[in-house]
Specification:
- This protein has 195 residues and is mostly helical.
- The protein folds into 2 domains: 7-132, Four Helix Bundle (Hemerythrin (Met), subunit A) (Up-down Bundle); 148-193, no CATH class.
- The chain has 5 helices and 3 strands.
- Strands 2-1-3 form a 3-stranded antiparallel beta sheet.
- Helix 1 (14-34) runs antiparallel to helix 2 (40-68), helix 1 runs antiparallel to helix 4 and helix 2 (40-68) packs antiparallel against helix 3 (73-92).
- The longest helix has 36 residues, at 97-132.
- The chain is globular, with a radius of gyration of 18 Å.
- The two termini are 20 Å apart.
- Residues 135-146 have low confidence and may be disordered.
- Pfam families: Hemerythrin.
- Keywords: Iron, Metal-binding, Oxygen transport, Transport.
- This is Hemerythrin family non-heme iron protein.
Length: 195
């Protein structure tokens, strides 16, 4: 299950929103690769596209934060630097195609998309507060994010479902979710800590 772009993720800057949509598209491509046969070159192409696009996006986003006077810009830049360094380290330490696919998935979904959903939404709350004259609160936890990736299996051979935290919790409480392909209940087979 992949997080889809929604207008609720908008920071109300057309250029930044367009870049975020592109990152969602790249993340979707990475997710598709996770469950399909792909060559190392196909994965390297997506990784290179991520690397190049991230640098451009982070630079543009930092300029936008400066323009609107975002008060937490120093911390946000630090997060950008950490994400960039982590991406480089992940790429350097790739062992095989499956390892490469898994790392691409972590980069795409858990770092970039959750960065947009968590950190970039703080920028939007600040921008909104400036328009309404309210005191902006830049706080953690409005959108709860997992520190783990939850993989569920079904009757499909070799298929894994990447389940978001809210669905994982609902399954833990007894709710049933089925694979759209085989129509069987999915069951947790692997929990992976995020780096």
């Amino acid at each position: 299950m992949m997080i889809e772009w929604s207008d609720s993720y908008s920071v109300h800057n057309a250029h930044i929103d367009t870049q975020h949509k592109k990152l969602f598209d790249l993340a979707k491509q990475a997710y598709i690769m996770l469950n399909h046969q792909v060559t190392p070159d196909e994965i390297r192409t997506i990784l290179a596209e991520f690397c190049n696009y991230i640098k451009e996006h982070f630079n543009d986003e930092e300029q936008y934060m400066e323009k609107i006077g975002y008060p937490d810009i120093v911390n946000h830049k630090k997060i950008h630097n950490e994400l960039t360094k982590s991406l480089v380290m992940l790429i350097k330490n790739v062992k095989n195609v499956n390892d490469m696919k898994e790392k691409l998935h972590i980069i795409a979904k858990k770092w970039l998309l959750e960065h947009i959903l968590k950190e970039d939404m703080k920028i939007e709350r600040f921008r909104r507060s400036m328009l309404t004259g309210q005191n902006p609160e830049i706080t953690e936890g409005e959108i709860e994010l997992a520190t783990e990736v939850y993989y569920y299996g079904c009757a499909c051979s070799g298929k894994l479902h990447d389940v978001p935290l809210d669905i994982h919790r609902r399954i833990e409480k007894g709710e049933k979710f089925r694979c759209k392909t085989c129509k069987q209940d999915i069951k947790c087979v692997k929990v992976q800590k995020i780096l």
